[in-house]
Amino acid sequence: MEDEPKLVQHAIRGDTGALSELLRRNYVFLYQYALKLTMDRNRAEDIVQETALKAIEHITLFQGGSKFSTWLISIASRLVIDKARRSKRERRWLTEERYTRGFRFEVTSRLDEWPDAVEALAELPEHHRVPILLKYYYGYSQEEISEMLKVPTGTIKSRLHAGIKRLREELRGHEQ
User: Fold this and answer.
1) For residue 104, what pLDDT is reported?
2) Closest to 45 in 3D by CA, of 89, 88, 112, 106
3) Taking the chain (176 residues) in consecutive chunks of 10 residues, what is each chunk's mean pLDDT?
4) Which of 24, 69, 126, 142 has the most beta carbons within 10 angstroms of its beta carbon?
5) In this structure, what DSSP letter does residue 150 have?
6) What is the model's pLDDT at position 86?
7) Whole-angstrom Cα distance, residue 124 to residue 36?
8) R_g of the chain computed on alpha carbons
9) How far apart are CA 155 and CA 145, in angstroms?
10) Domain count, the chain
11) Domain residues for 153?
């Protein structure tokens, strides 16, 4: 098995087998990330497919300054945020009870110890949820998140602060 940097170089030069292998290796990771962002299996699958298509279309633009998985997360994050901006319906959909129940079922089977936190996270708008997941679940720095989302670092800081504040309020509400 070739290491990732070699596969990336082959893929950039047009080797479709190398690109296919990179996408295969990162599929589960990308799907899990998309599921956390969208909190819906079907939407997560759509995001993964769209991300793969964008990666295929733009592989020559990947500069290799980060891991391939980081580049995929960046693409997926922008896709999710762009979709949210375009659709007011989406914002309403995010707060519907069936959405929360469906996600709770999906995640509770794996994360029984924190369903209230997951439910509170589901209530956050995507522009708060995405940076929180990237920072606290995936461990990216604010600067890395800023680069991924093409948003100033100060904006990321304020979104993290506002999102954490809302999560705390939501969790206090669950305790009472």
Assistant:
1) 42
2) 106
3) 89 95 97 92 96 96 91 94 70 46 43 64 88 86 91 94 87 67
4) 126
5) T
6) 72
7) 12
8) 17
9) 10
10) 1
11) 4-175
Nearest C-alpha neighbor of 15 from the set 48, 54, 49, 56: 56
∠65-66-68 over CA atoms, to 5°? 120
Q: How far is CA 4 from CA 18, 24, 82, in A?
A: 9, 12, 29
Closest to 107 (Cα-Cα) out of 89, 124, 121? 121
The per-residue pLDDT for 101 is: 45
What is the pLDDT, as a whole number, of residue 114? Answer: 60
Cα torsion angle, 23, 24, 30, 34, sign: positive
Are residues 118 and 136 in contact, defined by beta-carbon separation less than 8 angstroms? no
Side chain identity at residue 78, one-letter code: R
Task: For residue 66, give the amino acid letter.
Answer: S
Q: Is the dihedral angle over the CA atoms 170, 85, 161, 121 positive or is it negative? A: positive
Amino acid at residue number 14: G
How far is it, in rounded angstroms, from Cα 158 to Cα 154? 6
CATH label of the domain that carries residue 34: 1.20.140.160
Q: How far apart are CA 61 and CA 164, in angstroms?
A: 34
Q: Which two tokens stand for residue 132?
A: 């929180």
Amino acid 89: pLDDT: 54
